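sorry to bug you again but im stuck and you know this stuff better than me. theres a chain ive been looking at and ive put its sequence and its fold in token form underneath. id like you to explain what the token line says about the fold, in plain words if possible. anything you notice is useful, everything is just below.
___
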Amino acid sequence: MAKANRRDGAGGARANGRGEASGASGAKGRGKGGGGVATSGRSRSRTPQALPGGSDHLTGDVSVAVVQGDGAVQLLDDGQEAEFEGIIRRQLELLGENPDREGLQRTPKRVARSLAWLTRGYRQDALSAVGEGVFAEAHDHMVMVRDIELYSLCEHHLLPFFGKAHIAYIPNGRILGLSKLPRLVEVFARRLQVQERLTGEIADAVNEVIAPRGVGVVIEAMHLCMMMRGVEKQNSKTITSALLGSFRDDAKTRDEFLRLAHGRE
């Protein structure tokens, strides 16, 4: 098997055969055509990769949330929540706090439920998120949903990163309901993540659900692990991209996508 060629920098990259890039633009493509019309054929199908929590890109362990009498949503069962509370209580003690003082008495329960909510993507999967939102349609030009808000947790420090996702694809006989793209973002963002993997997982999910001619995803995000600790750089932004099919192989299609994604209509 040929070794994947990786190039880092603002000019883009090809990595893992997927065309993921940390930067603005990809390398020169191999196809002809433009205007958002794919000319390089169907994207290669992919085998779903295993993800934490026993789920993959398409199917997983989908749990039903329990709504409490006060309207709160409980995603953990009683035993899990009690165990989680004990761990958080001990963390407070190790920090030098008194978990029995008034302001902290309910903190372990709040944090347990908060973290379960912030990582609820482990209890969701792509197929359930899409549901019946796939439709037969002959449209063969680029479809884009831009500026999708996303919030996730960095798996290295459990601190938030947040920003926007821009997703586009060229249909191959089927389209997604527009709201399904933000739902797919939620499935993968609401897990412990790194931005690079998140970008690729979203692209792979769109590719697997509707097998389009091409998919492009760009994420722009700010990371609190760089802002409130460590180097403490407040204005830095991380940009990642994943390009599949015609978005990787066709230079004009790729350029149109990146121009739209970065707001240069």
